[in-house]
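Input sequence (497 aa), recorded before submission:
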Amino acid sequence: MSETKVGGGVAYAHRDQAYFDRRGLLRHANAWHLWALGVGAVISGHFSGWNGGLLQGGWGGMLVATLIIGVMYLGLTFAIAEMSPALPHTGGAYSFARTAMGPWGGFLTGLTENVEYVLAPAVVAFFIGSYMSGIFETPDSWQPAWWIGCYVVFVGFNMWGVALSFRVTLIVTLLALLCLAAFWISALPHVDFGRFALDVGPGGVLLPEGHGPLLPNGIMGVFMALPFAVWLFLAIEQLPLAAEESMDPKRDMPRGILLGFLTLSVSALAILTLNPSVAGIGSHALGASGEPLLDGFRAIYGDGPAKILALVAVLGLVASFHSIVFAQGRQIFSLSRAGYFPTFLSVTHDRRRTPHLAMVFGAIVGLGVLNAIWFLAGEDERGSIIGFTLLNMAVFGAMLSYIMQALSFILLRRNHPDIVRPFRNPLGIPGAVATIAIAAVTLFIQVVGDPTYRAGIAGVAIWFAICIAYFALFGRHRLILSPEEEFALENGRRRKA
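Predicted structure, token format:
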């Protein structure tokens, strides 16, 4: 097997067509499939997680934080909407950064996204297991069995074929949105905004009569609420990973991304306004809840149908789990096909043409992390470590990937103006700069204000160190001319010419 050395300390191993024949994907997705993939990945954050910001900044602080994070994601989604049809490859964030910043930039960007897509479904599986344990009254010792069941079922759906995968994604996403819509309609007659939504006072104390200030903790409360507002949009950026399975990525990718962002924005504002306003709950109680939507349903309909409502609430978690497992497999597949990860992980199923080995590997790592924490941590610490530290690790990877993707957009605009862009970002470079600034501030707030976040960073650093060592010692000498790499090299030659 011969090699070709290029700049940046990397070399490409020549592979014949048989290599790529064993790594082929099938095109199936249209704009609505892509919309469902993006919305489905995020929607669990509208069922739970976002509400912790109510104790940090009160309702007003959480609203301002949501608007700020919305600006960050608006800049990000517009940038992705331009880059993804211009570089329609499965690599997504890695692909953008590879063309903009070279092999090391592409690899590091792909690595930050890898942390997000391996750990996020593990956390969602934990929440699904918690719900199912409560519904079926199984002992805590059965939790790992629920996690394994989640992975087996939904990795299985994703492995069976791209048509089934997108069909399931569309169905569960629509059901999750119908569940949210049912809550919004049910909540309207029970809303007492001033009494309940504004029941958080300075320092996060409860105001029994409500009617407190909009910003009980001032501007610092807004800053501290930023990480929680991220959960209302986290993972919308995964859509470019479906580029090679899209029927017409140049047309459908921008439509799917922007329509998904619009849907999530409407849902985020509705759930933020109505859930804390329902009589009998309030922002203070909701801020400490692990199941805010379920608490809202209970306040409206009583405890009687609680188990049925809990099953309904699981829909949002299932939608996100299924969608992120899809992204996890494609993200590992793209880095493996190009040689950044071991190449056997990118082999696709002979008949179904799905990256089954990549998905199985990601599932094994996610389950391994979950079970290691479950069996090694103290009984009182398991939930907080998995539910907060692991999720913070995923958010850490996401924020870094946003910074790298926005930087890639800026560099592609400046250094590669001749790339054909079917969609052009109307926010341009200022929108990307805003994304970088807000993501950096969010990272800083979490590092300074959240000890569990700092603990999670150590775990991310270990994973980064292992992967970087592999790439430095082996991977960079054996890269493969995958579509992402060929595109980057070709545009690099054009720029020099």
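Checked by second reader. The beta strands are 3-6, 10-13.
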